[in-house]
Write a structure and sequence with these properties.
A three-stranded antiparallel sheet has the order 1-3-2, with helices on both faces. A two-stranded antiparallel ribbon has the order 4-5. Strand 2 and strand 3 form a beta hairpin. The chain contains nine helices and five strands, in the order H-E-H-H-E-E-H-H-H-H-E-E-H-H. It is elongated, with a radius of gyration of 19 Å. By secondary structure, the protein is an alpha+beta fold. It has two domains: 67 residues, Arc Repressor Mutant, subunit A (Orthogonal Bundle), CATH 1.10.10; 105 residues, Arc Repressor Mutant, subunit A (Orthogonal Bundle), CATH 1.10.10.10. Helix content is 65%, strand content 14%.
Length: 180
């Protein structure tokens, strides 16, 4: 009986990771309704069996199905799975080169928190920092289409909320590129 329950938990874990790539251990444990030890056991087994892979960033370990995502996509999925980092990233895309003060004022979190998240986004290569005198401005690094694709495919409820804002932003970006 225990083997069947173990196998069922492993199947549920792999299915959850496939549907929610970039999720972390605590979310998996919470969504599956299993203990932390059970989640750690099954995720370690799945990783040893080559069914999932993980990245450790600070205190969190993020899980992905094997062979599906490139490193830059994994970084974006990690960011999308965290509300504050996601809000900061979307604001950076939307506002085109905001300063840290702009982000603090809009997002409503402390300057220290914004600094930490921006540092992490920069370290992951998701955004780049541009120095303008005493100010640092931030912008998305790379093609925004990758972010949009991942959001549409793996975070559809998030995509629904942000699609209108993103569509308006991308339209304004494309108009800006067309003008001489």
């Amino acid at each position: 009986m225990k083997d069947e329950a173990d196998e069922g938990n492993a199947k549920r874990a792999i299915q959850f990771i496939q549907e929610h790539p970039g999720c972390h251990l605590r979310r998996i444990r919470s969504e599956l309704g299993i203990s932390m030890g059970t989640a750690q056991y099954h995720l370690a087994r799945l990783e040893k069996a080559g069914r999932v892979t993980s990245n450790r960033r600070g205190l969190f370990r993020y899980y992905f199905p094997v062979g599906v995502f490139q490193d830059n996509e994994k970084s974006l999925l990690e960011i999308l799975s965290q509300e504050t980092a996601r809000e900061i990233l979307i604001f950076i895309i939307e506002q085109k080169n905001p300063t840290q003060t702009d982000i603090v004022d809009k997002i409503g979190v402390s300057a220290a928190s914004v600094s930490w998240h921006v540092g992490r986004l920069t370290e992951l290569g998701v955004i780049t920092e541009i120095r303008e005198g005493k100010y640092k401005r931030y912008q998305l690094h790379g093609d925004p289409k990758n972010l949009v694709s991942l959001m549409k495919n793996y975070y559809p409820s998030l995509w629904d909320r942000w699609s209108n804002r993103l569509a308006e932003m991308f339209l304004s970006m494309s108009k800006g590129e067309e003008e001489p």
